[in-house]
Write a structure and sequence with these properties.
By secondary structure, this protein is mainly β. 2% of the residues lie in helices and 47% in strands. The chain has one helix and 25 strands. Strands 1, 3, 4, 6, 11, 12, 13 and 15 form an eight-stranded antiparallel β-sheet that branches. The radius of gyration is 20 Å and the shape is elongated. The two termini are 27 Å apart.
């Protein structure tokens, strides 16, 4: 299957937005105020975060959204091509939502989301001069467009997703971005909760070197990454895997698992690692990751259980080990 999940964010495991987002505009923050007593992305007037994701003709963006101020006309989600907006999802002064291209309103929602209430927005768009777009609120289709011009620029694709706020204040949580070009997860997920789970034990492999003590998992389990303690390796083929907290959800569908690895290289030459999963005794490496000389987050996305090729079950996620493998 071709991977289609490009990015997802719970906003519950870091506080520095540049760790995961490409561009930060003004002063957005991660703080309490998200859904389910969790953290969320807080955006005030003209605050924005932008994620660069490569060239994608079709995108699905899903996110929980709540406003704490009166509506003001302005974009809340932009699809851009290298900084230039192709089309956007835009709040109106009456509280409804528009899909627009270059100030041309292509469609308007029936629903006007209420103050201080969480809604789950999903927006699927194909970028083209004769494109398509659909917007859903809480799983209900509000705008459905076909044969409309969603391409403002010369290229029939978007390379970036931008979350922005025209008002003081709005919150974003449980965000995902899919490309529609693939064989798995190419359409709306529905109202989903993205859970951040943390290591709780050492598991099958403890081959990396702890910076202190003997427990490896305690050096990589911070909700906000710390670089004062860590595990390290100089030897290709060494692995470190950990047991994790169980999912909060006890029923439902697991759409994907995303391992976030916070890592750097601190030696000359090239260094590469991969994320690793161990499910039912089977080890599977993810794509090779070339490390930079400063700390950054790297994604290891698993839309299917790597050991079976089938959709994850909750029990399989809870029983799995995840970690890192030094490649070179």
């Amino acid at each position: 299957n071709t991977m289609t999940l490009l990015f997802m964010d719970s906003f519950d495991h870091y506080t520095t937005l540049t760790d995961k987002w490409t561009t930060i505009t003004n002063s957005p923050t991660i703080e309490t105020g998200g859904r389910s007593s969790s953290n969320g992305l807080k955006l005030d007037n003209t605050d924005a975060v932008t994620k660069t994701l490569g060239q994608n003709v079709g995108l699905v963006v899903g996110f929980a959204w709540r406003r704490t101020a009166s509506p003001v006309a302005g974009a809340i989600c932009d699809l851009l091509d290298n900084g230039s907006t192709q089309c956007d999802l835009r709040l109106r002064a009456d509280g409804k939502l528009d899909i627009t291209r270059n100030a041309t309103v292509l469609g308007t929602s029936t629903t006007a989301p209420s103050l201080n209430t969480w809604y789950y927005f999903e927006w699927m768009t194909t970028i083209a001069n004769s494109g398509s777009s659909e917007f859903r609120i809480n799983g209900v289709s509000e705008i459905t467009l076909a044969g409309v011009d969603t391409q403002q620029g010369s290229n029939a694709y978007a390379t970036q997703v931008k979350m922005v706020s025209p008002i003081t204040t709005s919150y974003v949580d449980d965000l995902y971005v899919l490309t529609t070009s693939g064989s798995t997860n190419t359409t709306f997920w529905g109202d989903v909760h993205i859970e951040a789970r943390f290591p709780t034990s050492d598991a099958t492999y403890s081959q990396w070197t702890p910076s202190t003590g003997s427990d490896h998992w305690e050096l990589v389990n911070e909700a906000t990454p710390s670089t004062t303690d860590y595990v390290s390796s100089l030897t290709p083929g060494q692995k470190d895997t950990y047991g994790f907290q169980d999912l909060v959800a006890t029923d439902g569908t697991v759409m994907a698992v995303q391992e976030m690895i916070y890592a750097q290289k601190n030696d000359a030459g090239t260094r590469s690692i991969s994320g690793i999963s161990r499910v039912s005794g089977i080890d599977t490496d993810g794509a090779t990751i070339a490390l930079a000389t400063s700390y950054a987050y790297y994604q290891h996305v698993m839309e299917r259980n790597p050991s079976t090729g089938n959709a994850w079950t909750i029990a399989e996620v809870n029983g799995a080990e995840f970690g890192v493998d030094e490649i070179a």
